[in-house]
Structure formats: structure tokens, C-alpha cells
């Protein structure tokens, strides 16, 4: 379920101990310029079997923090698969066991000092009759349109924007073809729905503050609830409507709703609730046809999440 986590360590004693760990090997040294101050900043990188350890400058908040911080980037699902792929299912018990293996391998005793600052979690799933092209359908998360991602073909991402038009990096939703990414390790029609958060406030609501929290079963109950909550905000526009049992006026309205500009116009209306009202009417009309693509996708995500909780 958990795909990626970023960890910060600011305690000077723990940083020194971890940086000297015999399992770590040096990857690179990088000097980068702080254009604001003109200061030359030193960034060092080490690694161990796909886990990245980065030593970078840090502005201490109190006398107990170092002027450098250790950043650990860990992909537990990949690590579980020998860093080859994350195309299979990764359930809660496997995730907890993997984090415990990581903690034991490096002898991490004071796990409360390993602060979680970034988390990605999601599920691999499939929808009968649909393949990677489902990712290309006009789709939205809440009032945010999914846009093509540069990271991978058949990949899209949704997030809000601030007043200056810059993307919100603290909560992003990813929807992409896992079957296209790893055709040798899963069915070609496998899709992935993923939540990415960098916001401490959001992580705290999930009961996540430090590394130890990711070894607690109750934490995954919160992650499960959050995953289903975000999945429930999806809207996929069906491009192959079967207007059974619908009046002509309703058919014409569904055709109008098939145009992405219809939804973009709703998003830009001053009345915030306009998009949600139109979405509700659209989904109700689809229910009358006997097939609601959005609900089918949501159900597929929820069903897989349920299986991973066992």
C-alpha cells in the first residue's frame, strides 16, 4: 500500500551515527549555489540497495538540531521486491514487516527522531473491459482536472493551484497504467491510483509523525480511510455511453457532459458547488443507463484496498 516515504533526521548524534553506517556507500558529492545568499552549499549522497541517504544543509529550529539534516528516501514496496518493481500487491502486513526489517537492519533504536515528511500510498487495480487507455479519459479529482504527467506515458496527475497559478505540491493524486510501466510483472491492464502528500498537518491526521508509526496497524486503518476518501472524489467522463432507458433530453445532456470543456466551465464558475451539483446529476443519469464508469472505478479501488487490509 505504501509506495514511498521521505524521512528527515535533524539530531546531530543520530545523523553522525547513520552517516558512518558500514552498509552505506557513497554515491556523489554536489556543491550547489544558494542564489539568495550566494553561499555554496554542500550536498552528499549515499545509498544502500535502493535506499537513498542525503546529507544537506538545514536551518535548525532549536539548539538540539544540527545545521545539516539527513534525508532518507525509502520505497518499501520496491524494497520488498528487491528493487525491481512495485507492480504486485503489497498488503498491510507486508508493509509493516518491511519497515521493521529496515529498522532492524540499520539498528534504528530512537525511531521517534526519524520524522516522516512525505508519503505516497495507493493500490494497483483493474477494471473489466478497460486497459491503459482509461488513463486518457477526461477525468477529475474533486474540482481538479487530471493532466498528463511527464514522468510516464499513460500517466496523469491532479492537484490544485495557488492564486499565482503554481501547483500544490502538498497533496497530489496520481492515476496511471502500472501494466504499461511493468508489463513483465503484472497484467497489462493493471492501473494504479495513488495519493501523494507532503503536508505535515495531513500526515498528523493520519497518525503519522515518525518512522515507528508506519509499523503500527492502526496507522494503516487511517491510510485506508484516506485512500477511500480521495477515491470517492474521482470523476471519469464516459466516452462510450449506452443511453438505455433515457429520454432524448437526458441523452443530449450526457453528450454535452462528454465534453471536457463542460466541466472546465463548471470549475471556473464563481459558485464553488456548481461542479459538484453537475457531477451529481451526471452520475445519476449514468446510473439510469445501467453503467456508471466512475463508480465502477471507485469500487475497484475500494475492493483492492479491502484485500490489502487483510
Molecular structure report:
- The structure is a single chain.
- The chain is α+β, with helices and mostly antiparallel strands and 310 residues long.
- It folds into two domains: 2-234, no CATH class; 239-290, no CATH class.
- A ten-stranded antiparallel sheet has the order 2-3-4-5-1-6-12-11-10-9.
- The chain is elongated.
- The protein is 33% helix and 25% strand.
- The protein has helices spanning 12-19, 76-80, 92-105, 178-181, 200-205, 217-231, 248-257, 260-267, 273-289, 293-308, and strands spanning 2-9, 25-33, 40-48, 51-57, 68-74, 115-125, 139-141, 144-145, 147-148, 155-158, 171-177, 191-197, 234-236.
Q: How much helix, percentage-wise, in residues?
A: 25-40%
- Low-confidence blocks of residues: none
Order of helices and strands: EHEEEEHHEEEEEEHEHHEHHHH
Shape: elongated
Biggest pleated sheet: 10 strands, antiparallel
Residues in β-strands, percent: 25-35%
Widest β-sheet, arrangement of strands: 2-3-4-5-1-6-12-11-10-9
Average pLDDT taken over every residue: 93
Radius of gyration: 22 Å
Query: How many distinct beta strands?
Result: 13
Number of helices: 10
- Which oligomeric state applies? single chain
Amino acid at each position: 500500500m505504501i509506495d514511498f516515504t521521505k524521512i528527515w533526521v535533524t539530531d546531530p548524534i543520530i545523523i553522525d551515527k547513520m552517516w558512518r553506517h558500514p552498509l552505506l556507500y557513497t554515491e556523489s558529492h554536489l556543491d550547489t549555489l544558494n542564489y539568495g545568499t550566494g553561499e555554496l552549499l554542500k550536498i552528499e549522497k549515499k545509498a544502500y540497495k535502493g535506499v537513498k541517504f542525503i546529507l544537506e544543509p538545514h536551518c535548525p529550529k532549536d539548539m538540539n538540531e544540527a545545521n545539516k539534516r539527513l534525508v532518507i528516501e525509502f520505497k518499501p514496496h520496491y524494497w520488498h521486491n528487491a528493487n525491481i518493481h512495485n507492480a504486485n500487491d503489497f498488503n498491510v502486513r507486508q508493509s509493516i514487516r518491511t519497515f521493521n526489517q529496515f529498522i532492524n537492519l540499520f539498528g534504528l533504536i530512537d525511531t521517534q527522531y526519524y520524522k516522516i515528511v512525505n508519503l505516497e500510498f495507493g493500490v494497483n487495480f483493474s477494471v473489466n473491459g478497460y486497459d491503459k487507455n482509461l488513463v486518457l479519459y477526461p477525468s477529475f479529482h474533486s474540482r481538479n482536472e487530471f493532466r498528463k504527467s511527464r514522468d510516464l506515458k499513460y500517466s496523469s496527475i491532479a492537484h490544485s493551484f495557488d492564486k499565482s497559478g503554481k501547483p500544490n505540491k502538498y497533496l497530489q493524486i496520481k492515476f496511471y497504467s502500472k501494466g504499461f510501466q511493468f508489463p513483465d510483472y503484472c497484467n497489462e491492464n493493471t492501473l494504479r491510483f495513488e495519493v501523494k502528500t507532503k503536508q505535515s498537518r495531513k500526515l498528523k491526521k493520519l497518525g503519522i509523525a515518525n518512522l515507528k508509526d508506519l509499523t503500527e496497524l492502526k496507522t494503516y486503518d487511517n491510510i485506508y480511510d484516506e485512500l477511500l476518501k480521495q477515491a470517492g472524489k474521482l470523476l471519469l467522463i464516459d466516452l462510450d455511453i449506452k443511453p438505455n432507458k433515457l429520454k432524448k433530453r437526458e441523452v443530449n445532456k450526457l453528450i454535452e457532459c462528454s465534453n471536457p470543456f463542460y466541466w472546465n466551465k463548471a470549475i471556473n464558475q464563481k459558485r464553488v458547488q456548481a461542479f459538484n451539483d453537475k457531477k451529481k446529476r451526471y452520475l445519476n443519469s449514468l446510473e439510469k443507463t445501467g453503467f456508471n464508469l466512475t463508480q465502477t472505478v471507485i469500487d475497484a479501488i475500494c475492493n483492492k484496498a479491502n484485500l490489502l487490509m487483510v
